Amino acid sequence: MSAGGAGGEATGGIPQNQLIALGTLGGLAGVYGGHFLSVASPAFAFIGALGAICAIVWGSAAVRRVASYGLGTGVPSIGMIALGMGVVASMFGLAVGGIAGPIVAFIIASIIGLVVGVLANKVLGMGIPIMEQSMTEIAGAGTLTIIGLSVAMTGTFMFDAVLETVVATGYIAVIFIAGGMAILHPFNANLGPDEKQDRTLMTALEKGAIAMVIAGIVATVVDGASAVPSILIGVFIWYIAFSKYVKLVHRDAYKVLGTGLLPTEEELE
Amino acid sequence: MIDVAGIIAENILYIAMVTLGGMLISWSVHFVPVGGAPAAMAQATGIGTGTVQLAAGAGLTGLVAAGAVMAVSDSFALVIASGAVGAMIMIAVTMIVATWVYVYGVGVPPASAKVDYDPITKDRQDIYVSQGTEGHGLPTVSFVSGVIGGALGGLGGAVIYYSLMSTSTTLSQSDLVALASIFAVGIFFVNAVIPSYNIGGTIEGFHDPKFKKWPKAVLASFVATLMCAFVGILTIGGL
Amino acid sequence: MEPLMGMGVLALMGAAATIAGTTEDLESDVGSQSNPNSQVQLAPQMMYPHRIYNKAISGEPPSNALICAIGGTVASVLMTAGLSVIFAIAIGALIATAVHGTYCITAYMGRTASQKRFRQPIYLDILRSHTPVMMGYAFITTFCILVVSYIMVAVLAHPFPLTLLAFIWGITVGAIGSSTGDVHYGAEREFQNVEFGSGLNAANSGNIVRKAESGLRNGIDNSWFCAKFGGPVTGLAFGMTVFLSGWVTAVFNPALSLTMGWLSVAAGVILVLLMIIWNRKIEVAARKAFGPYKEEEEVAA
């Protein structure tokens, strides 16, 4: 684990507000789309995972913004706290909310995230100006990721089914960590002074696709959701995102060499 | 919708206990001697990893032990004691092996840079700190502090798990175990991260001046865990 | 369960855990993961470009938790579908390994590309030679952790589901690996150019050894060194954690009576006390053997 960024605001790329819109609207649309269309045919469960991917991209953009200030400890910490809040909030939302479950979960997670963000600045004195907003965003994104992947596994967000298929079997643990890593890994993997937003978000897309494939694998033994669309579409998205990512790395890197010696002294001057 | 007031009234004790468990975890992290990245290069006293990770590793090992005992016994004291012991064993083993590596693999004696004399053994520390570093290894005071931290963390995790498991509900036993354990993991992570932000990721143990900051983190954890406790107990109690 | 059988099961778990701990540490040495990687990350900035894999997968505990949870999920799905346990665990570990490979590649390429201004090139031969090695180690780690988790669920009747147990042991093995074996890599192997036992002066930060016994040093050279001490002791640490935490309840089974339960707690506390004393013995021996770095002079206590 390595300490966070250089200590300034991350700049460049798509404005955060657009990403918030993508994450919230895309995430909720995916969750509800997956839920309702799965009634018609279990094949549509994969839409839930698409919603999760929207939330993952949003969440990793929020991690990128806040971790650029330097958290004093590793980047992963903020992802773990967000998913910790997210898992409690999402189970609550689904358990009490019925059809409004995802929205209830999202609101509860945002409230808990906001309070923790305020506590971090006011009580712990972290002094990161966007801490409140970022913590709210990451908790919200984490919750939508958890619910989206649950829908992809079960074809519904009705709590009885989620409890039986996702929680009692322990698959919630893989949602927790695969979703969490998809949110926190992109910035951590691209950390450095020449980090670029598009490259980081492409990593998020690629890791989100992996989470989608895993959800698809779980769906093979579930009646309400079909596995094949999730796995195939997931692998397809992964391939596209990974190829794009490698292209972006070639664009950004100093040099990409097959092999070779270290740069010479003159080269480093 | 569920009967919110009824569930809360019935389980108010468990909400309080979950909150207490969260505060214990938050407090425990301040005891665990963690030096972060510099400690991995023998540049700072403590274990060479991140606070969150080590506290989680110890606490969750305790949770596994508590879960195993809870399945066969209904004694509250025994369950939380088992959780504490599981976490203590994990952290003590980790620290003793870290000491092997520091002493036999790296060749540095354990020394603290924050105090001149070890408060427990009264050994001189500062002259054993190599040049240009902030101490290295695990002097006795840090080791003892780490064991206390592990015990408190395991205790906190087990209290949360026990309380969630005891909430009155109509869930089947296997569903309840799964839900309570993942909630305990989630609440554990929240309360492991909050104190890490408080101490800036590194601390030597209870003799470190940073240790005095613990009330802030425990207060923050109180608020955060209280919310999680309400939400968690309502989820389980409402089913 | 019969006590002798219980001990046998526990021994098997301890053995699997020891292997898992060793390969976990060697995997992180090949890829330079976790805390020591901060120096590999810093080196190009200090004008020391290198040919060492720069992998930062969010710290070892989450990264190992990820592969173990994926492995546990796939294995559990396959077992639900009726496949045999060994087959299910092997396939689960295989899929987890594939995912781990993608995480390794994005971490190396991403971090190196973000160091453009320090003129650190990406070496594709490093990527091609190291990634399969890490995947191999990750496979063994995942496989062994799944064995431990499966035994706990199937034989010892632990109430947690398999995937959750695998996730938790993944966090624990990562926490232990980054606390013990990595120090051998970070404090000794990266800085073999300074005198043994001199500690790492902060002024030397980033000045990692970049030349090998033959050619330029890479991550595989590092794992060769760490396999002699750091890796095996990490294995011992994780093996001891799994074995001792199970041992106290296997010898004093809390299911029999409350007294037995409290005896198991007491046994655990005694083990911890012994380790405190052991640590003190090593501390005293080390202080005597290495001596102080500075002349003794009185300071106010």
Question: What is the compact description of this entry?
Answer:
The complex is a heterotrimer of chains A (269), B (239) and C (301). With 269 residues, chain A is mainly α.
Kindly list the characteristics that best describe this protein.
heterotrimer; A: mainly alpha; 10 helices; B: 8 helices; 67% helix; elongated
pLDDT under 50 segments of chain A (min length 5)?
1-7
Main beta-sheet strand count, sense and barrel state of chain B: 2 strands, antiparallel
Of all chain pairs, the largest interface belongs to:
B-C, 83 and 92 residues
Low-confidence region ranges of chain B: none
Q: Report the order of strands and helices of chain A.
A: HHHHHHHHHEH
Distance between the termini of chain B: 11 Å
Strand content of chain A: under 5%
Instruction: Give the spatial strand order of the biggest sheet of chain B.
Output: 1-2
Portion in helices of chain A: over 70%
Number of helices in the DSSP assignment of chain A: 10
What is the CA-CA span between the terminal residues of chain A? 30 Å
| Quantity of strands of chain A, as a count | 1
Describe the oligomeric state of these chains in a short phrase.
heterotrimer
Structure summary, number of beta strands of chain B: 2
What's the Cα radius of gyration of chain B?
19 Å
H/E order of the elements of chain B? HHHHHEEHHH
Q: How much helix is in the residues of chain B?
A: 55-70%
Topology (elements, then pairings):
The complex is a heterotrimer of chains A (269), B (239) and C (301).
Chain A: H1 16-40, H2 46-67, H3 76-97, H4 101-122, H5 131-154, H6 159-167, H7 171-189, H8 197-219, H9 227-252, E1 256-257, H10 265-268
Helix pairs in contact in A: 1-2, 1-5, 2-5, 2-7, 2-8, 3-4, 3-5, 3-7, 4-5, 5-6, 5-7, 5-8, 7-8, 8-9
Chain B: H1 4-10, H2 12-29, H3 36-40, H4 51-70, H5 76-106, E1 111-112, E2 135-136, H6 140-166, H7 173-199, H8 214-237
Antiparallel strand pairs in B: 1-2
Chain C: H1 3-31, H2 37-42, H3 60-80, H4 85-113, E1 122-123, H5 124-154, H6 162-179, H7 181-189, H8 219-226, H9 230-251, H10 258-290
Helix pairs in contact in C: 1-5, 1-6, 1-8, 1-9, 3-4, 3-5, 3-6, 4-5, 5-6, 6-9, 7-8, 7-9, 9-10
